[in-house]
Amino acid sequence: MLDKGTIEGPQMMGHPKGLFYLFFAELWERFSFYGMRALLTLYMVNEIFEALVSRDLAAAAVYASYGSLVYASTVVGGRVSDTLLGFRRSIMLGGVLMSLGHFVLAVENEYTFYLALALIVVGNGFFKPNISTFVGSLYKDGDTRKDSGFTIFYMGINIGGFAAPLLCGWLGREYGWHYGFGLAGIGMLAGLIVFWRGIKEGVFLDKGMPPSIEKLETRVLGIKKKVFVPILAFLAAPVIAMMLSSYGAIGGGDTFLGDQNVVTLIFKLLGFAILIYMAVIMYQATASERKKLAVALMITVFMSIFWGFHELSGSVITLFASRNVNLWLIDAAQTNALNSMWIIILSIPISLLWGFLAKKKLNPRTPYKFALGLSLAAISFFVLSLSGSAADSEGMVPFFYLMVMYFLISVGELFMSPVGLSKITDLSPQRIVAFMMGVWFLSSAYAFQIVGFIGKQLAVESTDKDVRGFESLDTYIGGFELIAKYAIGAAIIVFILGPIMKRWMQDVH
């Protein structure tokens, strides 16, 4: 039982009151993020790149670059928060930038479209990593309430992820794309207001403050750092907007980069640099540390592969739903709510399953959970590939197949994602744990490079804006079958490597 002497500040439902302010702030932030994502690919294909025969290709490139930068920005934002701004200032700055981005997205203009995405990228970098860390800071070390506190917090993420596509998708369908984007902006603004009220009411006590007020007051180019960092963040947006438009605006035309874009090139160079640095770290590590780090790298790579398939939900699978699925009650944008729906339904049963298996001493080690997760991803896409055999005369398949696909991949997510993050901290030497956490977060960024590659392979080229039926079905069914083969191949590799990974993990379960 928790010692009452360790409880600080106002409490609510047995937890720090600040948790519930962060819960609602994150709920609305995720509402804005997933609401916008549900509409993004459909908006690009039907509006931004409408005149292009290769509009699917252009949309895939922009979506992949945007997703990669959104997740990569968290590494930079987290570092700036740790060394200078602190959680509070970072979250407020990120929230303002993201709110602006969503509202700019509601403007009907191709040029402001890229600027809006860029503002969201920069804002997410400051907001996302810091609000999650802020939750942990509300509890003292050893506080047994922390795990349940994070459970409450992550439920907010999935509630936002479930509600947003339904509401923003409905607005976009009934009244126009920009109303849907506008609602996402209102959601982000609501989250910002909730967080600001928490600060004003003092529910966070002294948590989340800058590490050094003196450093904030020091000057760069005559400007105080507390002002200089926000200026730099705003100035980064036009640069990122140019990077995002470098490929999409020309619809995949020839450039000095060939079929690459600036973002893809940057991530290839970054990946090469990370591998070199990891080789140096491995060389300097002890034999025991080297084995654990090797496992940490392996699970990071396999997590990237899983997310690469999973994140197709916002691009290729949304287009498939729009063009080839007989949807019931919801439209294509709203199908983005299905993953969060299954996560909400399945989280507690799967958590109880691991507890039951642990008591029976049958709880699988981490490598086998990853192998099972990848296997479920493979089966989910195999199910989609089978849907072609049930297509009607117009090339439309039953909604049932999409529901089953989301169920399976959501179970796979619960097998892999919750354990991966904790294992990175367990497997990494303390002196480089922050760096390894950065590499883990970058795995999601690299996953979007996989999304972009697959999106380009499954791009449907047509002069018909309303392409659907067998013209698109054959492309998708063949692609889903190939994805299933790659996923099962990855799962088999993990199963084969399982005994070695178990041995190298040593005392880490």
Describe this structure in words.
The protein is an all-alpha fold and 509 residues long. Helix content is 75%, strand content 2%. It contains 15 helices and six strands. The protein has helices spanning 17-48, 55-105, 110-137, 146-175, 177-200, 213-217, 225-248, 262-284, 287-310, 316-324, 337-359, 366-386, 399-427, 433-457, 470-505, and strands at 11-12, 15-16, 219-220, 223-224, 325-326, 397-398. The strands form three sheets. The chain has a two-stranded antiparallel ribbon with strand order 1-2. Strands 3-4 form a two-stranded antiparallel sheet. A two-stranded parallel ribbon has the order 5-6. Helix 1 (17-48) packs parallel to helix 4, helix 2 (55-105) packs antiparallel against helix 7 and helix 4 (146-175) packs antiparallel against helix 11 (337-359). The two termini are 25 Å apart.
Supply database-style keywords.
mainly alpha; about 500 residues; 15 helices; 6 strands; two-stranded antiparallel sheet
Q: How is the largest sheet built, in terms of strand order?
A: 1-2
Order of helices and strands: EEHHHHHHEEHHHHEHHEHHH
What general outline do the C-alpha atoms trace? globular
Q: Cα-atom Rg, whole angstroms? A: 23 Å
Write the layout of secondary structure elements.
Elements: E1 11-12, E2 15-16, H1 17-48, H2 55-105, H3 110-137, H4 146-175, H5 177-200, H6 213-217, E3 219-220, E4 223-224, H7 225-248, H8 262-284, H9 287-310, H10 316-324, E5 325-326, H11 337-359, H12 366-386, E6 397-398, H13 399-427, H14 433-457, H15 470-505
Parallel strand pairs: 5-6
Antiparallel strand pairs: 1-2, 3-4
Helix pairs in contact: 1-2, 1-3, 1-4, 1-5, 2-3, 2-5, 2-7, 2-14, 3-7, 4-5, 4-11, 9-12, 9-13, 9-14, 9-15, 10-15, 11-13, 12-13, 12-15
